[in-house]
Design goal:
Oligomer: heterodimer
Number of domains of chain B: 1
Order of helices and strands of chain A: EEHEHEEEEE
Number of helices of chain B: 15
Helix content of chain A: 25-40%
Number of strands of chain A: 8
CATH architecture of chain A: 3-Layer(bab) Sandwich
Structural class of chain B: alpha+beta
Number of domains of chain A: 1
Largest sheet of chain B: 8 strands, mixed
Structural class of chain A: alpha+beta
Shape of chain B: globular
Radius of gyration of chain B: 21 Å
Largest sheet of chain A: 5 strands, antiparallel
CATH topology of chain B: tRNA-splicing ligase RtcB
Distance between the termini of chain A: 28 Å
Strand content of chain A: 35-45%
Shape of chain A: globular
Chain lengths: 138, 473
């Protein structure tokens, strides 16, 4: 069962995605990122934005993926509530579905400044579930 | 943090002796209680910093230190480029040159009382704050580069504020050596609509009352009396700085100095091409932060003049607490140019320092410590001793005691706003959840942090400020 959660960091917040594949774990981590900024359930999927990123390994790819979303949130003034990715080695193509930010309706909390390499981990648990996590600077 | 593993040098100075790969000791300035409350991660990160090449004297943690990114927040470390010294994106932080600026007003609390609500509303309308907010200023490509080279000096040249303001900023409001061509297109694009915006999270614009004076002579030199109204602005380099941090953290992780004990400590030799590019970009982001705080100052002055015509706002000082600066310091009797990282730490030059303006020569550099919307903030001044203790550095804030998730479970934004209004503090925000995350109770006791900074001789307390109006992002 795919899911996401937050974990504590000294002054900021950690995001963790869990899924049956790397793709699913990355998508869930993206939902956790959105939930740092706003209430995911209030964000409608009116527009789709595509992103591409690559990295030398899977963990840095997670950081690049989350940073690509943060960048699109910032420059488009949008929030996203649905994510789909296709992985090819250490490259990914992602589709982000969302809408323009409405601070009151989306119950916004805080901007994400960037995804960090702190508490960064992408790994497959013994139960076969993938985990993708890192700390977000807010 | 476990006190047993530290060497108590004095009640306010605790050492970790060099072991393993550590090139220098690690030193924490704080009282016993503050250290006991610190995360073990502070020790781990500080000892990791102590392994980096070219580090001088020690890796330092300020009284408000907590778990950061590679460097602890509240961390200070100086590097000599001629001994292989490095520069680290994590040692500066994502919000490059985030800082606090304090403005004196010609008002007392009594003068403000009748107009408090009007002023709160005017400030909230004038200064864009919070997720998705945009500023009114749009810069062309050339203007953006001019801003990145000129900082607050550029902003003053554009009509945002007065030339006198520049006297009371570090480096007179402009970081030299900025290289706009080392700033990515993405970083510039992220800044397009964000000039003159406050941001969110722990950033704020506050109208505060001087509640207590600790040092009458220093307060007089800073033009502060009890019950005076001051304005504090806490924000940084906005989207541009965040993207520069993101871009160069990635470059340093993949192409930076090796070996390092932890990937999050990614860095580059100062003399390397990557190190020089980061320096150029970081200084450009510093200028972005300085220009941003200058534009916000202009917007604040406009709001005051509409509600309280004739009130004058003068700059007390502007400090950056996420920086790496070239400074001259003595090491083993030699005067050297060092690259001093302050991640969540404030420069605290003591009296007589050549970089201070004439009116601050006798008193030392103001150190502005931000609190939370419900508690206190502090103005301190640097001491002569702080150079020897920690390369002239002091703390920057209270530091969180509780995670954002815990805070939102415990408090509700509207209730907090109502409670604070009962206590005479007006909050203006578009985000109730943001207010809950920033609840005063989620932070450590800023009084203890300020007291410890003084007891450790890093800085001297001058005044304690309490909030009257707070605009939250």
């Amino acid at each position: 069962m795919a899911s996401w959660e937050h974990f504590s960091h000294g002054s900021d917040i950690g995001v963790r995605g869990i899924g049956s594949s790397v793709e699913e774990a990355f998508e869930q981590a993206a939902l956790a990122l959105t939930a740092v900024v706003a209430n995911v359930a209030t964000i409608e999927q009116r527009e789709i934005v595509e992103v591409r990123c690559d990295a030398p390994d899977l963990e840095l790819l997670l950081v690049s993926w989350l940073n690509a979303i943060i960048y699109e949130m910032a420059v488009r003034r949008m929030l996203f509530s649905k994510f789909r990715i296709a992985l090819a080695g250490y490259s990914l193509t992602g589709a982000l579905a969302g809408e323009r930010v409405d601070p009151e309706r989306h119950q916004v909390a805080v901007e994400a400044k960037g995804a960090t390499v702190t508490a960064l981990r992408v790994a497959c648990n013994p139960d076969g579930q993938w985990l993708a996590q890192c700390v977000i600077d807010v | 943090m476990n006190l047993q593993s530290l060497l108590r040098y004095s009640d306010f100075e605790w050492w970790i002796k060099p072991t393993g790969q550590m090139r220098v000791p690690a030193i924490i300035y704080a009282d016993e209680q503050l250290i006991a409350d610190m995360d073990e991660k502070v020790r781990e990160q500080l000892t990791n910093v102590a392994t980096l090449p070219g580090i001088q004297r020690a890796a330092y943690a300020m009284p408000d230190a907590h778990w950061g990114y590679g460097f602890p927040i509240g961390g200070v470390a100086a590097f000599d480029p001629n001994e292989g010294g490095v520069i680290s994106a994590g040692g500066v932080g994502f919000d490059i040159s985030c800082g606090v600026r304090a403005l004196r007003t010609t008002l007392t609390a009594h003068d403000l009382e009748e107009k408090k609500t009007d002023l709160a509303d005017a400030l909230f309308r004038s200064v864009p704050a919070g997720v998705g907010s945009t500023g009114a200023i749009r810069l062309s490509e050339q203007e953006m580069d001019n801003m990145l080279c000129g900082g607050a000096q550029w902003a003053v040249g554009q009509g945002y504020g007065n030339p006198e303001d520049l006297e009371y900023m570090e480096e007179r409001g402009r970081a030299f050596g900025a290289k706009p061509d080392c700033v990515s297109r993405e970083a510039k694009k992220r800044q397009c609509e964000e000039m003159g915006t406050l941001g969110s999270g722990n950033h704020y614009l506050e109208v505060q009352r001087v509640a207590q004076i600790f040092d009458a002579a220093a307060a007089e030199a800073l033009g502060l009396r009890e019950n005076d109204i001051v304005v504090s602005i806490h924000c940084g380099s906005r989207g541009l700085g965040h993207q520069v941090g993101t871009d160069y953290l990635k470059s340093m992780v993949t192409q930076g100095y090796r070996p390092i004990p932890d990937r999050e400590l990614a860095c580059a030799a100062i003399h390397s091409e990557l190190g020089q590019r980061y320096l150029g970009a970081m200084r450009a982001a510093t200028n972005c932060a300085l220009a941003n705080r200058q534009i916000i100052t202009h917007l604040v002055r406009g709001a005051f003049s509409r509600i309280l015509p004739g009130v004058n706002l003068t700059l007390l000082y502007d400090v950056s607490h996420n920086t790496c600066k070239i400074e001259e310091h003595y090491v083993d009797g030699d005067r050297r140019q060092l690259f001093v990282h302050r991640k969540g730490a404030t420069r605290s030059f003591g009296p007589g320092h050549a970089d201070l303006p004439p009116s601050l020569q006798a008193v030392g550099q103001p150190v502005l410590i931000g609190g939370t919307m419900g508690t206190e903030s502090y103005i301190l001044v640097g001491t002569g001793e702080s150079e020897k203790l920690a390369f002239s550095s002091a703390c920057h804030g209270a530091g969180r005691a509780m995670s954002r998730t815990q805070a939102t479970k415990r408090w509700h934004g509207q209730q907090l706003i109502d409670d604070l209004r009962e206590r005479g503090v007006l909050i203006r925000t578009r985000s109730f959840r943001g207010v809950a995350e920033e609840a005063p109770g989620a932070y450590k006791d800023v009084n203890a942090v300020a007291a410890a900074a003084e007891q450790a001789k890093l800085a001297r307390r001058v005044a304690r400020l309490v909030p009257v109006i707070c605009v939250k992002g």
